[in-house]
Design goal:
Layout: E1 2-5, H1 10-21, E2 27-30, H2 41-46, E3 54-56, E4 61-63, H3 65-75, H4 86-103, H5 109-119, H6 123-146, H7 160-174, H8 183-193, H9 196-201
Helix pairs in contact: 1-3, 1-7, 4-6, 4-7, 7-8
Length: 209
């Protein structure tokens, strides 16, 4: 498989983790977001949204990280990325979607660039925007996950929710957010990063980093 990728993209980071957990090798094709490669005609011809990641599966091209991850989970069932039982699976998806749909889009590179370009906000205002949405989202996750004492978000093995959480905490640190109010999230992150699948996907270890 071929992954169109950018090291610090949270969404691409998620897919790298999932591929590693599934034990799947892949070719990484760099798409430099800072240079605007995602807006180029060559990449738009592959993925009209101009977003990363995109995964060439051999059957066709997929965009949207959560759709890609669920495709990988169905195509390569072991180890499973969702727990057993309808309610447990729905809860795992809900936690993942809180990150992927409620937190991440408001702090996406193109949103931050638009705020600077169109509204002329300065670096401190941009950081205040970023921190506001992170704090709201992470506080809600912390409350939900404090109710459980498993090493990962949804049990004794990592899954979809962990795959979404770890990249978001990486970005939070990049932008200087104090994570002390979220000890449960940080503990889950630490458990994940002790696993090779997560460590190898980390942007600092990525071949294009």
């Amino acid at each position: 498989m071929k992954l169109y990728d950018y090291p610090r993209s949270s969404a691409a980071y998620r897919v790298r983790i999932a591929l590693n957990l599934k034990g799947q090798t892949f070719e990484a094709v760099p798409v430099n977001l800072l240079e605007g490669a995602q807006r180029g005609e060559d990449y738009r011809a592959l993925n009209p949204t101009g977003l990363v990641p995109s995964l060439d599966t051999g059957e066709g091209l997929l965009g949207q990280s959560l759709a890609i991850i669920e495709y990988l989970d169905e195509r390569f069932p072991a180890p499973p990325l969702l727990p057993a039982g309808a309610f447990a699976r729905a809860r795992a998806r809900a936690l993942a979607l809180q990150v992927a749909c409620d937190i991440h889009p408001l702090n996406n590179l193109r949103v931050l660039q638009y705020l600077v370009r169109e509204f002329g906000i300065d670096e401190q205002q941009k950081l205040a925007w970023y921190h506001h949405w992170l704090q709201q989202g992470l506080a809600a996750l912390e409350r939900q996950l404090t109710e459980t004492d498993s090493p990962f978000c949804c049990g004794d093995t990592p899954g979809l929710a962990d795959i979404c959480l770890v990249p978001q905490l990486y970005n939070a640190r990049r932008f200087g957010l104090d994570l002390a109010p979220y000890p449960r999230l940080v503990a889950i992150e630490a458990a994940c990063l002790r696993l090779e699948a997560f460590a190898a996907a980390h942007p600092d270890h990525h071949q294009e980093a």
